[in-house]
Each structure stands twice: as structure tokens, then as C-alpha cells.
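Thread: zinc ion complex, take 2
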Amino acid sequence: MARCSKCGRRAVVKLRYARMNLCAEHFTQYFEKRVKDAIVKYGLVSSGESVLAAVSGGKDSAALLPPLIKAADELGFKVVPTHLDLGLGEYSRECLEAVRRLTRALGVDAVVVDVKAAIGAGVADLAEASGKPPCSVCGVVKRYFLNAAALEWGVDAVATGHHLDDLALYALKNILLGELMGAAKLAPRVEGGEGFLARRVRPLYEVGERECLVYAIVKELPFTRTACPNTYIGSLDATIKQFLLNIDERHPGLKLRFMRSLARLARSLRPSPAAGYGRCPECGMPSRGGVCGFCRLTKSVLGEAAGRRVRNYLRSLRPTLTNPA
Ligand code: AMP
Ligand code: ZN
Ligand code: ZN
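Output below.
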């Protein structure tokens, strides 16, 4: 049985890239410190700011929340846990239940944003009526709601549970497809544009999927293990995933080096996401030209561009951002 490199107790995890085995207690400390260090190193959120934490009900964003809240206490920023009820039937009910149990266990409140309540249709309805793939509809809806929520609530950034393995996969995919500027946007911090595009931050940038899972289990965090019924792993994604697993096996630490260097490159390139965007004439939110994807989608399905409605709905949910004195 492997022993903890710090205290000699039974190890629960072997971290090959860090050449350490850690017990539950030391791994918890290690994981939380890695997240806090990333927040500080990459300047994700500063003292006095606030961040919307996008919590899906899955393990990754469950593993994001406690270290983010701890870092917020220590560094002096505010966290607004937020869940989108996407309207994907039983799956969404399970996700919502997991989020409720998680936030109850952590003693925090989550804002629950109900897509169906906002526009009268959920992601499943929109996908069916539009004939578009559910994952692409879901992506449009999630991005729209999270961005609009951050703006309507006046929070400074949106934090997601994307971890090192997600981001390395997207980065390699972008590079292989020749989308180099796309890869540069997989940085830990992506700037927004004043009044219409929120800053996006990824506090789990330097921790891998297995570490998130171990952390969630060791901390007994409630999360759902049910995969989204629409999950579709494209063949290129699957190939890259396998490639990254092979790399990990033979060269632990290389993936982290790759992503750190991408973060440095992104910083020096300073891709300004706001630069490629205009504003949607229907709702004022970012668009790559003309009416935004969300307004186009809702107009085609519901007969009305629903961006403004979403913004009004989100305004009605606006949480209090000031700390109780
Ligand atoms: P996914 O795109 O499903 O891999 O999720 C990536 C990240 O997006 C998660 O780690 C969350 O931070 C966020 N996210 C996904 N689904 C939701 C949801 N229903 N509500 C809030 N945040 C979500
Ligand atoms: Zn130990
Ligand atoms: Zn719009």
C-alpha cells in the first residue's frame, strides 16, 4: 500500500507528475492550494470583485466550488454559485438535486436559473423544434445565459469547472484544426468587453479530471454521475483523448507544461475576444455579426428573439452581492 509522502498515512492518490502520493487530508490541502495558486498566479479574480461560479451538478464544478469559496474568503472576493436548469428532462432534475445537496452541504445559496421559466422552452424543446444537435443548442443557451447573468448581476467574471484535461483536449483540437487563435482563448483568464461580454476564468486550469474526481469523493461532495443523455464524443475528440492518456502514461507532467506555455502565449498575444464581436441588434449581447446565435435560434423556434426576455428574467433573479456587515 502506498504511503502519503507527507505524513506516512495510507495514500488515496498517486500524483505521478508531482512525484507524490497523498493521504485524504494532504490531498485535500494540496488540491485547494493548487486552485488558489492558479487564481493568484493568473490573476483570475481580485480582492473586492465577484465571480459567478457555474455549477452543473457534475463532479468538476462540484470540485470547483469549495476551493473557490475558500480562496474567496482568503483573498476577499465574492462567489455567486449559479445553476442553469436547462430543461433536459430527468437529467436536469438530477443535476438540480445534486446542486441543491452540494450547496446545502457547503452552507451556501445557489441561484437557480430556469431556462424554461425564462423563455417557455428548454434545451430539449429548442433542439427538437429547430432540428439542431442538442449539444450545439445547449452550448448556445449555456453561453448566453451565463454571460447575460454575469452582466445583469454586475459580477466581474464567470468561473467554470473546465479542468486541465478538458482544456488540453480543446487546445490540441484547435491546434490540429489550424484554429490557433481559438487555442489562445483556452487561457485561464479570457477578458470580456465592457458591458456586453463577461470575463471568463478557469480556476481548475492546473488540475486534472482524476484529481477533481478524487477531491469530490474524498470531500464527499454530492454530484451526479449520470452523463448527459446527449453527450456525443466526436471521433477526433476520442482520438485526442486517447493520445493525451498515452502522453500522461509515458510523460507525466507534459500536459501541464503544454497548457502553462499556452497560458503564457495567450498572455503575450492578448487575444481580445471583444474585438471580433459586435452587438446583437435584438438584445445587445455579443454577436459575430448581425443577430446573435441565441436570438436567431429562439426567433426560428418561438417566433420571437428571446434575448431581451432572458435579460429581464435574469434581472429579476439578481442576487445581493454585498457581504453582510
Ligand atoms: P460541460 O460543457 O457540460 O462540460 O460543462 C463545462 C462547465 O460549464 C461546467 O464545469 C460548469 O462550470 C458549466 N456548466 C455546465 N452545465 C451547467 C449548468 N447546467 N449550470 C451551470 N453551469 C454549467
Ligand atoms: Zn498525509
Ligand atoms: Zn441577441
